[in-house]
Amino acid sequence: MIAATQNALSATGITKRFGGLVALADVDLTVGNGEFVALIGPNGAGKSTLLNVLTGLSAPTAGRIALDGRDVTRLPTHRRIRAGLGRTFQHGRLFPRLSVVENIMTGAANRAGRGEAGLRAHALAQLRRMGLERLADQPISALSYGNRRMVELTRVLACEPRVLLLDEPAAGLNLGEVEDLMARLRAIRAEDRIAVVLIEHNMGMVMRLAERVVVLNFGRKIAEGTPAEVQADPAVLAAYLGEGAAHAGR
Amino acid sequence: MADLIQLLTNGLALGSVYALAAIGFVIVYSATGVVNFAAGQFVMLGTFAGVATLVNAGWPLPVGYAGALALMALFGLLFYAVVYLPLGRSPVVTIIIGTVAIGITLQNAALLTFGSWPFRLPSPVEGMMLEVAGAVIPVHAVAVVVATAVLIGLMWLLLNRTALGIAMRAVAQDAKTARLMGLRVNALLAFTWVLAAVLAGIAGLMLGPMWFADVNMGDPIALKAFAATIIGGFGSLPGAIAGGLFVGLAEVLGASYVSSAYKDLIAFGAMILFLLLRPQGVFGERIQDRG
Question: Which keywords label this protein (chain B) (predicted)?
Fold first, then answer.
């Protein structure tokens, strides 16, 4: 396929069954170079499962995944990360007994041959860029919730991904922190041309950041388009608000 | 006074060996969640690796030590590949029972290979004595304490000041996230087993000249290292060191001042008290802090 070689990330026909439960049914997801795609859908729609399949934490029942046109479907997680994939979790997963800078060094370790001093310098540079250098030697337990999320974002950026998968990065943040996060995501994209797949329930954030929105429901893709198109889609309204609301909206 | 200095030195030397065995035990436990019941046999194997290279093969000391530790490193790698990796997806209890099986196998393999007659493993400072304040102490005991202190310093540097060590700690805390950082989790786990085996090997080589090299020596060491980790705090490296030294001192002082029949009572009594009153040990962290 020609499209596969042009996209930063291309997943085709992804199906994931857990026993009799179909978590994902023939889902396609393509992300262009530097493109910002939002992945939305009600709880249980399969969004996080899709990220698990993309990163290799969970093997798909069927389907194919390509990064920059290279088939990674059978690669283990750490090799996909080295090939340019980055991912954060819905519930922060910092290493609890490493300091902030050490946490970020683990992300940078993915680029071989830097040595401890090189990794530390790289990690500190990443922290400085995010305005977090004062936290470098803090233990994770001393950080506020908002700072933990920011450190996690810094850590995944230290992996230098070409495609960044963010699982509800704004969950639990206050309004000011959400604005801050959005500004950072915009800056990261403008400077690094990283493609982003964002799972988010905060629709304001989705509408303001995403170029394209993909909607999942019960493991199927039910809509795809610009934020405005998706917002007006009756199938999406039905999924979010129930069948009656969609009719009432007409 | 002279007696006390002598006893303290011997106690610290024995405690150092227990501490090294306990450290090997703790790094495996923190990285994999596996309680390695073969840990004592690892130390026994270290002693007999020394018997094989130094006594049976008659290699000169530096070559013999290097050879014995290389054998232990290979053994750690084999243990990872043949025991841990195939059982990796099983419940942790299955792996623990696997370590019991390997422990029994190792003990009997050593019995078949070396026989039940104990060996004497020489020390590089064999027979040398030091006089301090009227007390005569074996140089070997002092060397053991110094070598252990250096090793502990090196371990600290490895875990805190190298990229490899930071990656090892990350894997120990959350292997799934470590994979998502692009870390080679399997290679790091293999290295953890190798490191544990080499530390046990060093403990075995140091213990050999203090005891007789006997194929049944692994059992008491396992029990002492286990007591040391419970007293110090399960999963804690400073705890393993403090616990090991305590158990060694308690054993030597207890044998001399109480009775050699009751020398183990102090260490195991302390272990039981800790289990009852402070199960997290001296340096133990609250259970919810574990990643």
Answer: Amino-acid transport, Cell membrane, Membrane, Transmembrane, Transmembrane helix, Transport
Reduced to 3 states, what is the DSSP secondary structure of residue B182?
A: coil
Angle between helices B2-32 and B163-173 (to 10 degrees): 70
Which helix H or strand E contains A97, and what residues bound it? none
Backbone angles phi, psi at A226, to 5 degrees: -70, 160
Task: Inform me whether the C-beta atom of residue A162 falls under 8 Å from chain B C-beta atoms.
Answer: no
Pair A86, A157: CB distance under 8 Å: yes
For residue B212, give both structure tokens.
Answer: 């007789």
Rounded to whole angstroms, the Cα distance separating B139 from B128 reads 6
Average pLDDT along chain A: 88
Q: What is the mean pLDDT of chain B?
A: 91
Beta-carbon separation of B291 and A109 below 8 A: no
Mean pLDDT of A121-149: 93
Rounded-to-integer distance, Cα A83 and Cα A68, Å: 9
Whether the CB-CB separation of A32 and A6 falls below 8 Å is answered with yes
Cβ–Cβ contacts within 10 Å for residue A204, how many? Answer: 11
Helix (H) / strand (E) containing A39:
strand A36-40
Nearest in space to A29 (alpha carbons), one of A215, A231, A240: A215
- Given this model, what pLDDT does residue B287 score? 45
The 3-state DSSP class for residue A87 equals strand
Percent of chain A with pLDDT over 90: 66
Domain ranges of chain B: 14-217
Best residue in B85, B179, B181 for a mutation probing chain A (most A CBs within 10 Å): B181
Please give, rounded to a whole number of angstroms, the shortest distance from the CA of A131 to a CA of chain B. 22
Give the number of other Cβ atoms within 10 Å of residue B136's Cβ. Answer: 12
Give pLDDT tens digits for A95-128: 999 999 999 999 887 665 678 888 999 999 999 9
Among B174, B181, B289, select the one facing A109 at the smallest CB separation: B181
Distance CA A143, CA A151 (A): 9
ipTM over 0.95: no
Contacts of B26 in chain A (CB under 8 A): none
Distance CA B93, CA B116 (A): 32
Tokens of B127: 């027979």
Contact A155 B181 (CB under 8 A): yes
pLDDT value of position A243:
58
B170 interface with A at CB cutoff 8 Å: yes
B159 confidence band (pLDDT: 50, 70, 90): very high
Judged against a pLDDT cut of 70, whether residue B116 lies above it is answered with: yes
Q: What is the 3-state secondary structure (H, E, C) of B30-85?
A: HHHCCCCCCHHHHHHHHHHHHHHHHHHCCCCHHHHHHHHHHHHHHHHHHHHHHHHC
Q: Is A95 in Cβ contact with B180 (below 8 Å)?
A: no
